[in-house]
Amino acid sequence: MKLGLQINRFNWPGSPDNVGAHLIEVARAAEESGFDSIWVMDHFFQIGYLGPAEDPMLEAYTILGYLAAATKKVKLGALVTGVIYREPALLIKAVTSLDVISGGRAYLGIGAGWNEEEAEGLGFPNTPLTANRFERLEETLQIAKKMFRDDQSPFEGSYYHLKRPINHPLPLSKPHPPILIGGGGEQRTLKLVAQYGDACNVFARGSAEDAEHKFNVLKNHCDKLGRDFSTIEKTVLSVEVGAATENPETALRLAKDLGEVGTDHIIYGIGDGEISAIKKFAPLAAKLSKL
Q1: Based on the number of CB atoms within 10 Å of its own CB, is 17 exposed (0-12), middle (13-18) or buried (19 or more)?
Q2: Which fold has domain 2-288?
Q3: Do the beta carbons of residue 199 and residue 232 sit within 8 Å?
Q4: HSE of 17 in the Cβ direction (CA atoms, 13 Å)?
Q5: E strands, the chain, where?
Q6: How far is it, in rounded angstroms, from Cα 82 to Cα 113?
Q7: In what order do the strands lie in the sheet with 265-269?
Q8: Which of 152, 176, 183, 282 could form a disulfide with 33 if both were Cys (CB 3.0 to 4.6 A apart)?
Q9: How much is the CA Rg of the chain, to the nearest whole Å?
Q10: 212 pLDDT more than 80
Q11: pTM exceeding the 0.85 threshold for the entire prediction
């Protein structure tokens, strides 16, 4: 079982003055404690279940580039980028740059986007989000595949038009950084995973039942499209590290259940960002990684 850490808060004591130094401590502690990946949310306002919109939030790809220099082994990605936040070619260039500077450790994490308050508050184009977001996501996935394989021919979609999508240098990851599509929408999102994705991400905070159901839906889409379901990495977003270390037997049981339904990669939240909580997770990480 692979293990990931999602950094989802920045309201740490001393923030913002110490946020850079603290981020490095978090990343290095995670790497030393047995995590395989580090993720950041791609939001500009804090999201409701984690705090008020005004809480500190940093831009995802700036952080990921910073973390690339502070780490050696962990994979790095956004969980996940809202498709309307950046033009497709800019996003692909950012992920490619991350992959190159990290020595081939990037994911492209992407989704249709949902945070209407954030998008309208900052004046992002293509709002409201209900308008054509899945169509834009599919075109962005098509552009990603095109640019990652160095196809410089024009792209003419309904929403995006690229005359010459050069992407040099190409990513170091082969054939390209894994494309992780986040979300559990059964009619559209999981179908896009089957069509274009190398990985999916669904929620599993208390039981494996929801994840199992989503994976079964994904398998059905794969079967209809002739895609090998086993080639898709199944990731789930689970509890925070503090909760896991406080109840290690519960966390271990949930991880075993998730593994039995096909999960490859469990991602835990950072919680309050205490380095001690991440370090205390190390003995549990050693057990989890053997599942």
Answers
A1: exposed
A2: TIM Barrel (3.20.20)
A3: yes
A4: 2
A5: 2-7, 37-40, 75-78, 81-82, 108-111, 155-156, 161-162, 179-182, 199-203, 233-240, 265-269
A6: 4
A7: 75-78, 37-40, 2-7, 265-269, 233-240, 199-203, 179-182, 108-111, 81-82
A8: 282
A9: 18
A10: yes
A11: yes
Task: Enumerate residues 6+ apart whose C-beta is below 8 A from 126.
Answer: 84, 132, 133, 136
Selection from 236, 221, 211 nearest residue 189 by Cα: 221
Contacts of 210 (CB under 8 A, 6+ apart): 184, 202, 203, 204
In angstroms, how far apart are the furthest CA atoms of the chain? Answer: 55
Mean local confidence (pLDDT), 180-208: 93
d(CA 162, CA 200): 27
- Local structure of 3: helix, strand or coil: strand
**Cα–Cα separations (whole angstroms), residue 179 to 12, 23, 27, 140, 215:** 31, 25, 22, 11, 17
Each residue's pLDDT tens digit, 85-137: 999 999 999 999 999 999 999 999 999 998 989 999 999 887 777 778 999 99
> Is residue 204 predicted with pLDDT exceeding 90?
no
Residue 280's pLDDT band (cuts 50, 70, 90): very high
H helix intervals, 77-188: 88-101, 116-121, 133-148
Rounded Cα gap, residues 163 and 37, in angstroms: 35
Q: pLDDT tier at 61 (50, 70, 90 boundaries)?
A: very high
- With contact defined as beta carbons under 8 Å apart, do 76 and 97 qualify? no
One-letter amino acid at 273 equals: G
Q: Provide CB contacts within 8 A for 16, sequence distance 6+.
A: 10, 56
pLDDT, position 13: 86
Torsion of CA 283, 284, 290, 291, to 10 degrees: 170
